[in-house]
Amino acid sequence: MATIRSYLSNDRHLGNTASELLLHYNTVRNRITRIEKLLDIRFDHADDRYRAETAVRMASVLAALTEPSPRP
Questions:
Q1: 3-class SS letters over 8-65
Q2: Please, what are the domains in the chain?
Q3: Would you place residue 71 in the very low, low, confident or very high pLDDT band (cuts 50, 70, 90)?
Q4: Separation CA 4–CA 42 (nearest Å)
Q5: What per-residue confidence (pLDDT) applies to 21?
Q6: What angle do the packed helices 46-66 and 2-9 form, to 10 degrees?
Q7: What is the rounded CA–CA span in Å between residue 41 and residue 70?
């Protein structure tokens, strides 16, 4: 999830994503390729990218809603 989130927030720029995640460029490229195959999407297709961005945002919302609230 961190790879997808970073990749999309960096406008699909592998170099910036690699720097942000402290990974090698090829590692990010390989991860993106595997993610595309697993999810049967292509990040260079606008509809697929939109669905991925929506899923990432929804996952963040759900995570925020399910976090235990701090006790007073």
A1: HHCCCCHHHHHHHHCCCHHHHHHHHHHHHHHHCCCCCCHHHHHHHHHHHHHHHHHHHH
A2: 2-61 (1.10.10.2840)
A3: confident
A4: 12
A5: 98
A6: 120
A7: 38
Q: In angstroms, rounded to a whole number, what is the distance separating the alpha carbons of residues 12 and 17?
A: 8
Q: At residue 17, what is the residue type?
A: T
Q: What is the pLDDT of residues 14-56, one digit of tens each?
A: 999 999 999 999 999 999 999 999 999 999 999 999 999 999 9
Query: pLDDT tens digits, residue range 40-50?
Result: 999 999 999 99
